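Teaching note: in complex prediction, the entire set of molecules is handled at once rather than each chain in isolation. The prompt given to students was simply: 'Predict the structure of this complex.' The entities are:
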Amino acid sequence: MTKVMTLEVITPERVLLTEKTNFVVAPGTEGPLGILYNHAPLITGLLPGVLKYESQGRMFFIAVSSGFMEIHDNRIVILADTAERPDEIDLNRALAAKERAEKRLIEQHPGLDVQRAELALNRALARIKVAAHQQAAS
Ligand code: ATP
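The expected output is the structure of the full assembly:
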């Protein structure tokens, strides 16, 4: 029997992905979480970061923002506010978002929502990393 799991990535806008996979690394709130066949049932939060999964011997990369993940019965469901494949990412937009967030965090104006700025920075960094994988692969 082949030990494959199903990975689904869902945003409010669309179902981005339904794939068979044998290995996933997700950006959990407690750090990167590696998932193999027969993982224990789990519900956890997700932070903006890079979702990696293996399919047919290749690693694939998706940029995700905040959300939740459920693992049950070899089915992994990612519910994220946003998710993009490498070829969907506008690198210049992500670089501009990174600069804006860094500027806010450096300037520390009164009333700055630090957590919001950090989340924006991490979304931008995840997109930049995923776009770099696309460039490396082509
Ligand atoms: P920005 O400030 O550039 O809007 P953001 O992190 O605030 O960045 P989000 O609110 O996370 O943007 O996303 C809004 C929508 O835009 C989502 O549909 C998301 O997939 C898309 N999106 C955001 N940044 C990019 C990007 N660099 N490339 C492609 N799509 C993006």
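Point out the following to students. The pocket of adenosine-5'-triphosphate is lined by residues 65, 82, 84, 88-90, 93-94, 97, 120, 123, 127 (CB under 6 Å). The longest strand covers residues 15-21.
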